User: Fold this.
Amino acid sequence: MKSRGNSKGTEFFETDGACPFVREVLTRVGDKWSVLVIVLLGDGTRRFSDLKRTITGISQRMLTHTLRGLERDGLIVRTVIPTVPPRVEYALSPLGRTLLKTVTELAEWARVNRGTIELARAAFEQREAAISPKQVKSRIGQALVGAR
Assistant:
Protein backbone atom coordinates (compact mmCIF):
# COMPACT_ATOMS: atom_id res chain seq x y z
CA MET A 1 0.00 0.00 0.00
CA LYS A 2 1.70 3.12 -1.20
CA SER A 3 0.78 6.45 0.28
CA ARG A 4 1.01 9.70 -1.60
CA GLY A 5 2.05 12.72 0.42
CA ASN A 6 1.66 11.84 4.08
CA SER A 7 3.78 8.76 4.71
CA LYS A 8 3.74 9.14 8.49
CA GLY A 9 2.70 5.83 10.00
CA THR A 10 2.32 3.96 6.71
CA GLU A 11 5.78 2.44 6.42
CA PHE A 12 4.74 -0.77 8.18
CA PHE A 13 2.21 -1.50 5.43
CA GLU A 14 5.10 -2.05 3.04
CA THR A 15 7.40 -4.02 5.33
CA ASP A 16 5.46 -6.69 7.20
CA GLY A 17 2.51 -7.61 5.00
CA ALA A 18 0.07 -5.78 7.27
CA CYS A 19 -1.85 -4.14 4.43
CA PRO A 20 -4.30 -7.02 3.76
CA PHE A 21 -5.01 -7.41 7.48
CA VAL A 22 -5.50 -3.67 8.00
CA ARG A 23 -7.82 -3.54 4.99
CA GLU A 24 -9.82 -6.46 6.42
CA VAL A 25 -10.18 -4.82 9.83
CA LEU A 26 -11.07 -1.43 8.32
CA THR A 27 -13.74 -3.14 6.21
CA ARG A 28 -15.26 -4.51 9.42
CA VAL A 29 -15.08 -1.42 11.63
CA GLY A 30 -15.60 1.10 8.85
CA ASP A 31 -18.95 -0.07 7.53
CA LYS A 32 -21.94 2.06 8.42
CA TRP A 33 -23.66 -0.51 10.63
CA SER A 34 -20.56 -1.39 12.68
CA VAL A 35 -19.86 2.27 13.41
CA LEU A 36 -23.41 2.78 14.66
CA VAL A 37 -23.35 -0.40 16.78
CA ILE A 38 -20.00 0.52 18.37
CA VAL A 39 -21.17 4.06 19.16
CA LEU A 40 -24.44 2.78 20.67
CA LEU A 41 -22.67 0.13 22.76
CA GLY A 42 -20.35 2.89 23.99
CA ASP A 43 -23.29 4.00 26.16
CA GLY A 44 -23.60 0.55 27.74
CA THR A 45 -25.00 -2.94 27.26
CA ARG A 46 -27.89 -3.31 24.83
CA ARG A 47 -30.27 -6.07 23.88
CA PHE A 48 -30.64 -7.14 20.26
CA SER A 49 -34.18 -5.77 20.07
CA ASP A 50 -33.03 -2.41 21.48
CA LEU A 51 -30.27 -2.14 18.86
CA LYS A 52 -32.72 -3.11 16.09
CA ARG A 53 -35.23 -0.50 17.25
CA THR A 54 -32.57 2.23 17.59
CA ILE A 55 -30.76 1.71 14.26
CA THR A 56 -33.17 2.96 11.62
CA GLY A 57 -33.08 1.02 8.38
CA ILE A 58 -31.11 -2.05 9.48
CA SER A 59 -32.67 -5.44 8.83
CA GLN A 60 -32.61 -8.20 11.43
CA ARG A 61 -30.33 -10.21 9.14
CA MET A 62 -27.85 -7.34 8.69
CA LEU A 63 -27.79 -6.57 12.42
CA THR A 64 -27.11 -10.24 13.17
CA HIS A 65 -24.33 -10.29 10.55
CA THR A 66 -22.78 -7.09 11.93
CA LEU A 67 -22.91 -8.26 15.55
CA ARG A 68 -21.37 -11.65 14.66
CA GLY A 69 -18.53 -9.96 12.76
CA LEU A 70 -17.81 -7.58 15.63
CA GLU A 71 -17.91 -10.50 18.09
CA ARG A 72 -15.60 -12.56 15.85
CA ASP A 73 -13.07 -9.72 15.81
CA GLY A 74 -13.24 -9.43 19.61
CA LEU A 75 -14.82 -5.97 19.61
CA ILE A 76 -18.05 -6.91 21.38
CA VAL A 77 -19.13 -9.52 23.91
CA ARG A 78 -22.38 -11.46 23.53
CA THR A 79 -24.02 -12.69 26.71
CA VAL A 80 -26.96 -15.11 26.74
CA ILE A 81 -29.07 -14.83 29.88
CA PRO A 82 -30.92 -18.13 30.58
CA THR A 83 -34.48 -16.89 30.87
CA VAL A 84 -37.60 -17.94 28.99
CA PRO A 85 -37.25 -16.80 26.29
CA PRO A 86 -33.46 -16.41 26.46
CA ARG A 87 -32.25 -12.83 26.63
CA VAL A 88 -29.18 -11.81 24.61
CA GLU A 89 -27.15 -8.73 25.48
CA TYR A 90 -24.23 -7.10 23.71
CA ALA A 91 -21.50 -4.92 25.16
CA LEU A 92 -18.19 -3.53 23.99
CA SER A 93 -15.21 -5.68 24.91
CA PRO A 94 -12.07 -4.05 26.32
CA LEU A 95 -10.68 -4.08 22.76
CA GLY A 96 -13.89 -2.49 21.46
CA ARG A 97 -13.59 0.25 24.08
CA THR A 98 -10.16 1.16 22.66
CA LEU A 99 -11.85 1.76 19.30
CA LEU A 100 -14.80 3.75 20.66
CA LYS A 101 -13.11 7.18 20.70
CA THR A 102 -11.88 6.88 17.11
CA VAL A 103 -15.22 5.63 15.77
CA THR A 104 -17.15 8.28 17.71
CA GLU A 105 -14.89 10.99 16.29
CA LEU A 106 -15.47 9.62 12.78
CA ALA A 107 -19.25 9.63 13.27
CA GLU A 108 -19.10 13.18 14.67
CA TRP A 109 -16.92 14.31 11.74
CA ALA A 110 -19.55 12.96 9.33
CA ARG A 111 -22.34 14.72 11.23
CA VAL A 112 -20.50 18.07 11.34
CA ASN A 113 -19.48 17.93 7.67
CA ARG A 114 -22.76 16.60 6.29
CA GLY A 115 -23.77 19.90 4.68
CA THR A 116 -20.39 20.41 3.02
CA ILE A 117 -20.39 16.85 1.69
CA GLU A 118 -23.93 17.22 0.35
CA LEU A 119 -22.91 20.45 -1.44
CA ALA A 120 -19.86 18.73 -2.95
CA ARG A 121 -22.02 15.84 -4.15
CA ALA A 122 -24.55 18.21 -5.72
CA ALA A 123 -21.78 20.16 -7.47
CA PHE A 124 -20.25 16.92 -8.74
CA GLU A 125 -23.60 15.68 -10.07
CA GLN A 126 -24.18 19.03 -11.77
CA ARG A 127 -20.75 18.91 -13.43
CA GLU A 128 -21.28 15.31 -14.53
CA ALA A 129 -24.72 16.07 -15.94
CA ALA A 130 -23.19 18.85 -18.06
CA ILE A 131 -20.81 16.43 -19.81
CA SER A 132 -21.91 15.08 -23.17
CA PRO A 133 -21.87 11.31 -23.82
CA LYS A 134 -18.96 11.87 -26.23
CA GLN A 135 -16.96 13.54 -23.44
CA VAL A 136 -17.78 10.67 -21.06
CA LYS A 137 -16.53 8.15 -23.64
CA SER A 138 -13.36 10.20 -24.11
CA ARG A 139 -12.75 10.35 -20.33
CA ILE A 140 -13.20 6.59 -20.03
CA GLY A 141 -10.73 6.05 -22.86
CA GLN A 142 -8.19 8.38 -21.21
CA ALA A 143 -8.62 6.59 -17.89
CA LEU A 144 -8.04 3.22 -19.53
CA VAL A 145 -4.91 4.44 -21.30
CA GLY A 146 -3.64 5.99 -18.05
CA ALA A 147 -4.22 2.74 -16.17
CA ARG A 148 -1.81 0.80 -18.42
Remarks:
- The first strand starts at residue 46 and ends at 47.
- DSSP finds eight helices and three strands in the chain.
